[in-house]
Amino acid sequence: MKKTIQIIIGLMCAGSVYTGCTDQVLFGNDFINKAPGGSSNLDSIFANPDYVNQYLTNLYNKQYYGLPYKNNNIQSASPYNGKLDAVTDLYQMHWSGNKVWSSYYTGTFTAKEDPLISFSNDNVWETVHQASVIKENIDRCPGLSAHQRDYIVAQATALQAFAYSLLLPHYGGLPIIETTIDGNNIGDRPRATFAETVDAIVRWCDAAKDNLYWAYNGNDAESSQLQTGRWTKAGVMALKAQVLWIAASPLFNSDTPYYGGSEAESKHLVWYGDYQQDRWKRALQAFEDFWKENEANGNYYHLVQPAKKNCDGYRIAYRRGYINDDSPENIHWTKVAQYYGTQGSYTWLNWNTWSVNRLNLSPSVEYMEMFPWSSGQPFNRAKDMKYQYTYTVGEGEDAVDWDVYNCLSGQNDNLFFKYTAVRGGFVKTATRDPRLYENARVSGVQEMLDFNREDGSSSGNIIETWVGGQNAPTSVKNLDGTLAESMTSYCPTGFATYKYVLCQNEYWRDYDMHWNVLTIPDMILMYAECLAECGRNKDAIEQVDLVRSRVGLKSLNSSYNSGLNLLSNKDNLIEEILRERACELGMTNARYIDMVRRKRTDWMTKQLHGMATYRMIKNQDNKWVRRNAPYFGNDKNGGMDEPSRFEYEFFELFQGRRALWSLDPESPAVKKWLMMPFPQDEINKGYGLIQNPGW
After folding, report:
1. pLDDT(207) > 80
2. C-alpha 536: how far from its chain's center?
């Protein structure tokens, strides 16, 4: 695997040498007046097949990278901006210098700023322009066979389709540009309708697919694993299905506009203008075409299965699925650089260690409660956690009641682990969905899940997120006694991010960061939603169960969910699919896309919560009392058993309290956030951009 990556990155670096061969793509009037490239430069590039391939490789460098990256001019990859999922109900940012906090949480964002996904600063139009340069000039290059030309053009077309797909769910209809730009035709490129934009992306995917390899698993240099990272037939077929799935969703496929009264809506720039069931059927067919082709190719892409059916075994299978870039779950991924032995330039790793947490995306209680018990039974705080007592802080009108809970099984806590006494000690068993332990740091999880063992057995010290633990602040209380998250805490909500961060000691050593664009679990769950929308609930459940069984969970339609009537109730089934997507696809911005396309403004307006965990020990009077101190390096040395009993207090998050939390989810002030604004300075240039509703 490492050799493969090295070669890929080497090509990327070689290609970057030729960045200056064409002029930079600008916007508005500057874009109009800018020539597409000097002829001498083009003559040089297209006189040599090696130069053409290097130019194409440079084009791959312009893909959205996903993970925050140091010194990168891509808006959506900047570590100082944050992740889209932090705008949903899953995570809370805890650094006021972050754009998510300063603009989104405060509600002060305007069209004069760059959104987290930028219309002009995410290399979309640079990609479109340079793809057109290739397609318009490829016939000038001597020494290329017809097959080679078709292969290069197909990759350029796939990159163009991908660039448009990044903006589609955030902006709606876009200018359709299929040629290099000169001063005579930009005025003819205003925003296309939403339908026209979708159809253009689909057309490009269809045009590219038959000249691409299904996967890079061949025996010649062009089709071998050494080419991994380039677009494939599987990739563009999956991208087509994803785009049609987005387009069929309620934001765009509805009889009612999401905002109302805007020019963009009246001209069908942000929706189709009506609801048609056939749009879901069209998406469904695209997914089934993908699965049929994948089967014809020996099911090359598939879920990683556990070698051992316990929590560690399920976790390592789940982790290898999303972490390893050569995983059979990864249909397409992006990477920008490679470093061994260190985190290198990825600020995602660098700023999310235990010692530096300015960019910490902390999971909310609401997210943690989406994960079921290990049996598959849904978690229900009212039923699964035992009320202990209430204490009052303050007096009179300022008095606040705080409820205290535990989650006991005998003398042990079982919120995350069950401790069963055996001769000479105890057996520790995870009690929740294994994906929880991969998405969040919680008390009791061991620091390392060893990649070098097939079953991924855990090792190292346990993580201590209880108050006073080694991985948590000494206190989470204000001076008046009320609970609060800390800006500088390791676990400001009571939990900390784990997915894509993992343990630096084991991960930075051997593995490179990449960002998954299209994956098999995502494809399965998108497909399941299409099936449900087309009235095939039973088939949809079977698809969801493929993802659940990989981590040892019972069927979605087990007796635990009998009250939901999932075989007949489409709305309940889709709600469960959305929850499964949150559990499976944490940290990938999937929740944000789901929030937008399903018009779930309630996810933007609900007050989120944190949870303070208190470790309990028996004092000399045989009474349970709180012990706000570390275990490792402290009590363990004194001979105490691993902590197994806790109390919990829930509190409202207020650091970075979001302006939208106090608003009606159906109000225009909230609904406008479903789409991102075009830059106002681009609107003012008058080349055909119509602003999105509310901005």
Report:
1. yes
2. 27
Asked whether the beta carbons of 83 and 66 are under 8 A apart, the reply is: no
- Tell me how far the alpha carbon of residue 386 is from its chain's centroid: 34
CA pair distance 533, 578, nearest whole angstrom: 13
Phi-psi region of 694 (alpha: psi -120 to 50; beta: other; left: phi over 0): left
Structural element, H or E, at residue 134: helix 124-137
Computed over every residue of the chain, the mean pLDDT equals 86
Name residue, tokens 């009474």: 623
Distance CA 119, CA 612 (A): 40
Query: For residue 299, which amino acid is it?
Result: N
pLDDT tens, residue by residue, 15-60: 332 333 434 434 333 433 333 444 558 889 999 999 999 999 999 9
Residues 6+ apart with CB under 8 A from 146: none
Q: List every span in the chain annotated with CATH 1.25.40.
A: 2-300
pLDDT confidence of residue 407:
94
Looking up tokens 């995502």 gives: 522
- Please give the span between the terminal C-alpha atoms of the chain, in angstroms, as a whole number: 47
Q: Poorest-confidence range of 60-69, 580-589, 605-614?
A: 60-69
Residue 474 pLDDT greater than 90, yes or no: no
Better-predicted residue by pLDDT, 39 or 695:
695
Q: Which of 234, 223, 244, 240 is nearest to 291 (CA)?
A: 234
How confident is the model over 129-169, as pLDDT tens digits? 999 999 999 999 999 999 999 999 999 999 999 999 999 99
Q: Give the CA-trace dihedral at 474, 476, 482, 485, to 10 degrees.
A: 160
Query: 2-300: what fold?
Result: 1.25.40
φ/ψ of residue 171, rounded to 5: -125, -20
- Number of neighbouring beta carbons within 10 Å of residue 649: 20
Gap between the Cα atoms of 560 and 405, Å rounded: 23
Three-state secondary structure call for residue 182: coil
Phi, psi dihedrals of residue 421, rounded to the nearest 5°: -70, 135
Q: Do the Cβ atoms of 495 and 353 come closer than 8 Å?
A: no
Long-range contacts of 197-202 (CB under 8 A, 24+ apart): 197/164, 197/168, 197/172, 197/173, 198/168, 198/243, 198/244, 198/247, 200/164, 200/176, 201/161, 201/164, 201/165, 201/168, 201/239, 201/240, 201/243, 202/240, 202/243, 202/244
- Please report where in the chains the tokens 């469960």 appear, as a residue: 576
pLDDT value at residue 15? 32
> Rounded mean pLDDT of 277-296?
98
**Residues 601, 674: contact at Cβ < 8 Å?**
yes
Of residues 303 and 43, the one with the higher pLDDT is 303
